[in-house]
Write a structure and sequence with these properties.
The protein has one domain. The chain has 1 helix and 4 strands. Strands 1-2-3-4 form a 4-stranded antiparallel beta sheet. The protein is mainly β.
Length: 88
């Protein structure tokens, strides 16, 4: 996976937008769940821009994750539109 412009890395697949539940706080790898995180909602936050909400299919926890745009490997636009319309 290619790094983002701000030097960080995304925590979800740029094609299907799924993630794995690994963190309690971003980067800590302390969750112990390892369930699939389904992209369930797309929203806008003034401080972060476009944000995907992921819900763990195993434990139900919801976590926000920034959408990757304007980078070497942006998130798939069609997949984002499906989430926006509740088809993800």
């Amino acid at each position: 996976m290619a790094p983002l412009n701000n030097g960080s890395y995304r925590n979800h697949c740029p094609v299907c937008l799924y993630s794995v539940h690994l963190d309690v706080r971003p980067g800590d790898r302390a969750a112990g769940c390892a369930g699939l995180m389904r992209p369930v909602e797309l929203s806008y936050r003034s401080a972060k821009g476009q944000v995907l909400l992921h819900r763990c299919e195993r434990c139900g926890q919801v976590q926000p994750n920034r959408v990757a745009v304007d980078c070497a490997q942006p998130d798939d636009l069609d997949a984002l539109v499906r989430v926006l319309h509740g088809l993800g």
